[in-house]
Records
---
Amino acid sequence: MKKSVYSVVLSDDVIAEVDRLAYIKGTNRSNMINQILAEYVSLTTPEKRINDIFDELSSLLYSGETFRELSPRAPSVMSIRSALSYKYNPTVKYTVELYKIPQGSSQGEIRVSTRTQNSALILEMLHFYNIWADIESRYGFSGENSFEDGVFRRPIILRESPMPNATAKVAHSAGEMIAEYISLFDTSMKTYFAAVSDSTQKIFNLYYDYIRTNQKII
């Protein structure tokens, strides 16, 4: 969305209130005024779209007992935590970043990390990520995943299910699709760390059910 510089005269009291709101929402004065005016004229800005997605993501993920907010969200970034049953129950951090302007086919990025120096855990996480990436690639995901410095990165690409007979339960919004993907990823990771002999097959089955029951996925 193109932006230009405009000169307007506003009262000091109005600016003070705008600055207060901007501080609460973690943005600056110009963005806050732009959001207020856009809302008044019923125009959806990239910032409003991202905020709406995060609101929906919060309501879906935080309604249960698995996920909790890790830190107050920034205008384009939201951090979520989940506990992993592995020795000292390390925290798994999910960071969702949404782009104001898509970068190619990518609408944003999901990053997964665990604050640990335990080499055994890092190796196990890498093994799981490789299994996960292989399953996604097998079912048509064309994005490039990466694992570096303990962080798994996965682009958010909105796409159709590769299953021709996939059935959607409801029409999915971006917030729902991201929430379902994070829930699936978290469940699959915990299945892997449960150390059952057929964990890879169980993860495959979880992903298969995901693409079979959703027409729209990420």
Note: The mean pLDDT is 90.
---
Amino acid sequence: YLVASWPFWQGGFPDLMAITATRDNTQITITTKASINGGDAGSFPANQPTTVALNQGDVLELFAHAGDLTGSQVAADKAVQVIGGHYCTQVPIGVAACDHIEESMFPRQTLARDYIVTSPATAGLPNGRVRILRILAADSGIALSYDPPQGGAPAALANVGDFVQIGPSAEAFKITADKRIMVTEYMVGQDYDGQEG
């Protein structure tokens, strides 16, 4: 699994990931992009694989009080559920409100090379709500293209777990990669443009 999160907010709120085991004695190797210091789970140094064992129904929650867990990797020898998110944040940072983000991650083998992204529409905003996109690399050495072209959008991702951010924008477009990627969307906070959605 790759984990999509959102950066630590200086307001004191951490980004997070949670892993739930479905079978006893599940061996899970986690490589976090941000350091996890202390707590009941122990420490997880950034970019260093750490292995833990969980039994059926056990949940390992990791909170980063600095940095961004986006791009962290999880590998397990039995089926698990992986969730990425944030306890309370702003999208983008500096724009209210305190939004809780939580999403189940898909296994890497289910990720695709082509994605069509559209802006979420609401009754008050039929043309779509402004959002921020993140594109994560599931493989190394990925070439990216966009249709229509997206000004300033990067054309490559070097390593597994690297990501690029596009937006804020409400434009719909297609993302094409020559290897597997994961795409996430984050709607902006309610005060971004004065239009709640």
Note: The two ends are 31 Å apart (CA to CA).
---
Amino acid sequence: MKFSFYIINYNRLYYLRACVKSLQETTSDYEDKEFICIDDDSKEPGTKEYLDELEKSGWKIIHQEEIRKQRNEKKIDSDRSNFFVMYAVADALQLGMEASTGDIIVPLHGDSQFIRRGWLHEYKKLFSSRDDVGAVGFDALSKSRLINERLLF
């Protein structure tokens, strides 16, 4: 079972680096996976070089601005705090889905962190028993939230 992980990025290099590192380290024992990053024309210094480095290591890098140019679309100028930002994010989510070749597709926030090795094998077992699952989202806080709620009662 192949897993496709994709991260959407825009000017958040610090978080992207941490997410990539934790994801690669904690899934290193699982072979059948792919990593994708969709970048929305980040201007933050060092981002282009880091994306080039990821691409050389086997990541698929999608430059959202290049896709817009191919479609004859323009980036909507905004302060990134309004409706137009949601359009850009939705477009990036769709690009990630289209680029994914895995049986299970996992869109991630760029600030996601993974700490336990071997977890992907456990998810493979779970999803192997479910033919109706094709995309998933992880809630890293569920277990700690449940533990904290039990302590309150």
Note: The beta strands are 3-9, 33-39, 60-63, 104-108.
---
Amino acid sequence: NQVFFDRPVNSTCLQCHTTYASDIPGGMKNSPEEFDHQKILFGIGCERCHGPGAEHVKYQTANPTATVAKYILNPVGFTRQQSLDLCTQCHGGRMKSIKPPFSFMPGDKLHDYFTINKLLNKGGIDVHGNQMGLLAESKCFTSSSTMTCLTCHSPHDDNRGNLALFSERCMTCHNKEHGT
């Protein structure tokens, strides 16, 4: 297989591989997108799942007595669908943006921002995979009304390769008590 290092990196790439990127205003339509390198938050940081930290700091600075956080969210309080949508924005395979890049915010409805491809067997999986599509078709997911990605995965810990930990998580449901 040949690797192409000269392909353009556009907003579709950046939406999953960075926390945030700001395009250069007034860019020409039908030309490659350009991004302000001073306004890119590289990698996946807290803001990707918890909301805009700068807005939070600005609000709290202007309102020091406010006791309710504004602009920062705790996904633990999300509905099942909100939690799934948050993960699916990057782990949902091929999706097409229908709104400007980086406009989806934690807690939003994904289908308001992307056209979601749920087909797994007919071109739904590309080099990036479709982890949400695979999960949605699993018996574990279809048999549960509460399972989300966070049931097995922690976004704050790198548990890759820790088979004992994942086995332990599987056993919370797949045991004699639950008859599975």
Note: The first strand starts at residue 18 and ends at 23.
